[in-house]
Specification:
single chain, three-stranded mixed sheet, 14 strands, 11 helices, 340 residues
Length: 340
């Protein structure tokens, strides 16, 4: 089979036992199913070996997070298309065929995601992808169906298949050749936003990304790091800086980073007032990490810029999401003004 579903697992035996049978039932006719274990301390590996012998198993030698975990295991996967699937995703009947059809019918499309809805409340979109991902010009990610922490109810308002800026790492079908050509995920990220960074690099190289809402999955979310974790705050702010620094053209880089410094400072003060010192320090430490590692990151930026054939900004929101959301109180994707 030309498609391989690859589930990166870390210490989620219970979720595997609950959701893997559904993946098998709705996918095995169209794809190989592989579980890649990221050095789980639980008995996930033993579970796969004894209860699911029809599933292929890869055991990574170390836990390098989401980014390195996938980079390591995918070296051993020979497939035309790879479908990166979180262990906390419930798939549905006929979910995989619409995604495969997108790549089969358009060679300019590098990757595609389904509609992502919330496992706990299946009427709502889910945080990690909703109906396609975008960013604003200062690097703040959002989705059709989700802006910051505001989730919309799915009433079919975003059921059209369309080009997007990023596809979710929770469930993304991507051409293996393109993933390899761009050296996969940036392992400095460890976890969070590595898929947005990869999508940006791929688009700078001339390819497109899509969402196909005819395919629907349900995501639990928060399986590795809870939203209230200061470590997650650190990764989100640090990785956003790494992404902007790598992918912005020189003409925009310093201006955007300067504005980002101000916006992150405001966010840090808001964290201090609402969430306390640990989240404030997480934002501060994210910036310290970035500035302390500029020499290393400049080399990575140079390599990424050499691969770029354009600066892709078609699906970058030209305004400020912070202004639209917090000042103008526009919390629904369709309400955003001066869009793309």
């Amino acid at each position: 089979m030309k498609t391989a579903v690859v589930i990166l697992n870390y210490n989620t035996r219970k979720l595997l036992d609950e959701l893997l049978p559904i993946v098998i039932a709705h996918s095995q006719h169209a794809a190989r199913i592989i579980v890649a274990d990221n050095c789980s301390p639980d008995d996930s590996v033993q579970l796969i070996k004894t209860k699911y012998p029809q599933v292929e198993l890869i055991v990574n030698e170390s836990n390098g997070g989401f980014a390195k975990g996938y980079n390591d295991c995918l070296k051993y996967v020979n497939a035309e298309y790879i479908l990166l699937l979180n262990s906390d995703v419930e798939v549905t009947e006929n979910w995989i065929e619409p995604l495969i059809n997108i790549l089969d019918n358009d060679s300019t499309v590098a990757g595609v995601q389904p509609k992502i809805k919330a496992y706990q409340n299946k009427k709502n979109f889910e945080f990690a992808g909703a109906s396609g991902g975008f960013i604003d010009k200062y690097g703040f990610p959002f989705c059709r169906g989700r802006i910051f922490d505001s989730l919309e109810t799915d009433n079919g308002q975003y059921n059209d298949s369309r080009e997007v800026f990023w596809t979710t790492g929770a469930c993304m079908l991507i051409r293996k050749k393109i993933f390899d050509e761009h050296r996969g995920f940036d392992e400095d990220f460890f976890a969070h936003m590595e898929e947005i960074d990869l999508c940006w690099r791929i688009q700078n190289a001339g390819y497109r990304l899509m969402v196909e809402p005819a395919s629907i999955v349900y995501h639990i979310g928060g399986g590795t790091l809870d939203a209230a974790s200061p470590q997650k705050t650190f990764y989100n702010f640090r990785n956003n800086l790494l992404m902007l620094h790598k992918n912005l053209p020189s003409s925009k880089l310093y201006y955007i980073l300067f504005i980002k410094l101000i916006l992150d400072g405001i966010a840090a003060l808001r964290f201090l007032a609402i969430n306390g010192v640990p989240h404030f320090m997480a934002v501060f430490n994210a910036h310290i990490y970035f500035y302390n590692n500029l020499k290393h990151r400049n080399q990575i930026r140079k390599s990424a810029q050499e691969k770029a054939v354009r600066y892709y900004e078609k699906n970058i929101y030209k305004g400020s999401l912070v202004v639209q959301y917090f000042l103008m109180k526009r919390k629904i994707f369709s309400e955003l003004k001066n869009k793309f």
